[in-house]
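Anyone up for a design puzzle?
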């Protein structure tokens, strides 16, 4: 794991945007794995700014989102398809047919299961994910892989935990139906990505971040499995990093890594 600690959420978004652009530049037809939620919004804003400034095109990019709610329509304001259209896809030159979000509008479990299996097949057919963007839940979830999810799980239907439902309540109106089921990429699916970039900001993520980076590998903190990924970059702001025991070491490693890149290591 490469742990990068930066002063503010804005710095986290800028650093993440640079990483996304690096991957886009190096590949002819890049495949990005995308997340929703509050954390990546600043990253998407930055990517949109770079696009509007003529510095970045999404024409060759294919995307796969982590998850989608079951029980609301695609055009519902809180569906993850709507979220992605609103914050990224409608604002850049991406071909919408190259964007994928799990198909979760059916209420028939057989159809949903079939869609989930098909989703993994589509990712494979696209050649796999080059860079997967992740956030982390306060309970350590990645995608909607809640605590006790199998580390080898595939894309499937998941029941959301009470803490996730409570955390996401803020997006729904008081009298509105709030989904408690979703289709999510499995942990096994996520781990097949060639690179992973997880962002976390804010004090409320500090405990999950500590469990992810310094805790034991445990399905009680699904994100802890990222310790086993060859190329996982974790970008944190000061608050999200505030409970880390080895915080000074991670900061020191980054300083030394940058010196090495500048050819200045002795
Ligand atoms: C989003 C997702 C979730 C979020 C996580 C953090 O597609 O799969 O795992 O990344 O719940 O959400 P925020 O960023 O809102 O704190």
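Challenge accepted. My sequence:
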């Amino acid at each position: 794991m490469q742990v990068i600690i930066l002063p503010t959420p804005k710095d986290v978004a800028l650093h993440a945007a640079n990483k996304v652009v690096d991957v886009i530049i190096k590949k002819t037809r890049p495949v990005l794995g995308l997340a929703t939620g509050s954390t990546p919004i600043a990253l998407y804003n930055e990517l949109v700014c770079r696009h509007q400034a003529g510095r970045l095109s999404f024409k060759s990019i294919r995307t796969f989102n982590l998850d989608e709610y079951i029980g609301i329509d695609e055009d519902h304001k809180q569906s993850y398809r709507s979220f992605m259209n609103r914050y990224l896809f409608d604002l850049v030159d991406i071909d919408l047919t190259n964007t994928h979000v799990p198909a979760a509008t059916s209420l028939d479990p057989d159809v949903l299961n079939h869609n989930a299996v098909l989703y993994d097949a589509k990712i494979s057919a696209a050649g796999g994910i080059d860079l997967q963007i992740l956030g982390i839940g306060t309970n350590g979830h990645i995608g909607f892989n809640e605590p006790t999810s199998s580390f080898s799980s595939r894309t499937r239907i998941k029941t959301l935990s009470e803490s996730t439902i409570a955390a996401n309540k803020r997006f729904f109106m008081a009298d509105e139906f709030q989904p408690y089921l979703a289709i999510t990429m499995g942990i096994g699916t996520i781990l097949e990505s060639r690179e992973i970039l997880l962002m976390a900001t804010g004090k409320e993520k500090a405990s999950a971040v500590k469990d992810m980076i310094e805790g034991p590998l445990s399905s009680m903190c699904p994100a802890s499995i990222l310790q086993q990924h060859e190329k996982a970059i974790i970008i944190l702001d000061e608050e999200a990093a505030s409970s880390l025991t080895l915080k000074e070491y991670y900061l020191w490693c980054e300083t030394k890594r940058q010196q090495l890149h500048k050819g200045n290591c002795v």
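A detail worth pointing out: Residues 48 and 92 are 6 Å apart (CA to CA).
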